Amino acid sequence: MTNQTKIQIAIGVAIAALGAALAYAGQHDKVRMAGAAIAALGLVFTRHALRGVKWGRDKS
Predict the structure, then answer these.
(1) In angstroms, rounded to a whole number, what is the distance separating the alpha carbons of residues 10 and 40?
(2) Which of 6, 9, 33 is nearest to 20 (CA)?
(3) Which terminus of the chain has a lower count of CB atoms within 10 Å, N or C?
(4) pLDDT digits over 31-60, tens only?
Protein backbone atom coordinates (compact mmCIF):
# COMPACT_ATOMS: atom_id res chain seq x y z
CA MET A 1 0.00 0.00 0.00
CA THR A 2 1.52 3.29 -1.06
CA ASN A 3 1.59 6.50 0.94
CA GLN A 4 -0.82 8.10 -1.52
CA THR A 5 -3.37 5.37 -0.85
CA LYS A 6 -2.95 5.76 2.90
CA ILE A 7 -3.51 9.52 2.59
CA GLN A 8 -6.61 8.99 0.46
CA ILE A 9 -8.03 6.54 3.01
CA ALA A 10 -7.31 8.93 5.89
CA ILE A 11 -8.94 11.85 4.07
CA GLY A 12 -11.97 9.75 3.15
CA VAL A 13 -12.46 8.57 6.73
CA ALA A 14 -12.05 12.13 8.03
CA ILE A 15 -14.66 13.43 5.56
CA ALA A 16 -17.05 10.64 6.53
CA ALA A 17 -16.56 11.39 10.25
CA LEU A 18 -17.10 15.11 9.68
CA GLY A 19 -20.29 14.45 7.74
CA ALA A 20 -21.57 12.01 10.36
CA ALA A 21 -20.92 14.52 13.15
CA LEU A 22 -22.69 17.23 11.16
CA ALA A 23 -25.64 14.95 10.46
CA TYR A 24 -25.89 13.95 14.13
CA ALA A 25 -25.45 17.40 15.68
CA GLY A 26 -27.26 19.47 13.05
CA GLN A 27 -30.09 21.66 14.26
CA HIS A 28 -32.05 21.87 11.00
CA ASP A 29 -33.13 19.29 8.44
CA LYS A 30 -31.07 20.85 5.64
CA VAL A 31 -27.92 20.74 7.77
CA ARG A 32 -28.57 17.10 8.67
CA MET A 33 -29.15 16.16 5.04
CA ALA A 34 -25.97 17.99 4.02
CA GLY A 35 -24.06 16.10 6.73
CA ALA A 36 -25.43 12.79 5.50
CA ALA A 37 -24.42 13.65 1.94
CA ILE A 38 -20.91 14.62 3.05
CA ALA A 39 -20.60 11.37 5.02
CA ALA A 40 -21.70 9.37 1.98
CA LEU A 41 -19.13 11.12 -0.21
CA GLY A 42 -16.43 10.36 2.36
CA LEU A 43 -17.36 6.68 2.30
CA VAL A 44 -17.33 6.64 -1.50
CA PHE A 45 -13.90 8.27 -1.49
CA THR A 46 -12.58 5.73 1.01
CA ARG A 47 -14.08 2.80 -0.92
CA HIS A 48 -12.50 4.05 -4.13
CA ALA A 49 -9.09 4.20 -2.44
CA LEU A 50 -9.49 0.72 -0.93
CA ARG A 51 -10.49 -0.85 -4.24
CA GLY A 52 -7.04 -0.01 -5.60
CA VAL A 53 -5.25 -1.88 -2.81
CA LYS A 54 -3.78 -5.28 -3.64
CA TRP A 55 -4.94 -7.56 -0.82
CA GLY A 56 -3.05 -10.71 -1.86
CA ARG A 57 -0.36 -12.17 0.35
CA ASP A 58 3.29 -11.67 -0.48
CA LYS A 59 4.76 -14.83 -2.07
CA SER A 60 8.28 -14.34 -0.69
Answers:
(1) 15
(2) 33
(3) C
(4) 999 999 999 999 999 999 888 887 766 555
